[in-house]
Amino acid sequence: MKISIDSDTCIGSGQCALTAPGVFTQDDDGFGEVLPGREDGAGEPLVREAARACPVQAITVGEG
Questions:
Q1: 8 Å CB contact between 61 and 23
Q2: 1 three-state secondary structure
Q3: What would the DSSP string read from start to end of 3-62?
Q4: Does the global pTM surpass 0.90?
Q5: Residues 56 and 44 sit within 8 Å (Cβ to Cβ)
Q6: Partners of 32 in the beta sheet?
Q7: Tens digits of per-residue pLDDT, 6-41?
Q8: Is there a contact between 15 and 25 (Cβ–Cβ < 8 Å)?
Q9: pLDDT interval class at 63 (50, 70, 90)
């Protein structure tokens, strides 16, 4: 699994960090970030749910 956040699309709603805090966080400006070393999802079962919860679909979850 490979996770990324499009920083140009993110509006900082925080749904990713609330849904899967072991993978996502928010930067100092409130925008979503993938935690360092967690780009593979770290086995977190709610990563796909966090992507679905994003109101602007800024999160991409791919295979590989």
A1: no
A2: coil
A3: EEE-TTT-----HHHHH-TTTEEE-TTS-EEEPTT-TT-TT-TTHHHHHHH-TT--EEEE
A4: yes
A5: no
A6: 26
A7: 999 999 999 999 999 999 999 999 999 999 999 999
A8: no
A9: confident
- For 51, half-sphere exposure in the C-beta direction (CA atoms, 13 angstrom radius) is 16
Query: Which pair of tokens denotes residue 18?
Result: 């609330």
| β-bridge pairing 2-5 and 24-26 | unpaired
Helix (H) or strand (E) holding 2: strand 2-5
**Residue type present at position 42:** A
Residue count of the chain: 64
Instruction: Give the whole-angstrom CA distance, residue 36 versus residue 34.
Output: 6
Token duo for residue 13: 């709603």
Name 61's bridge partners. 3
Judge whether residue 64 has pLDDT over 80. Answer: no
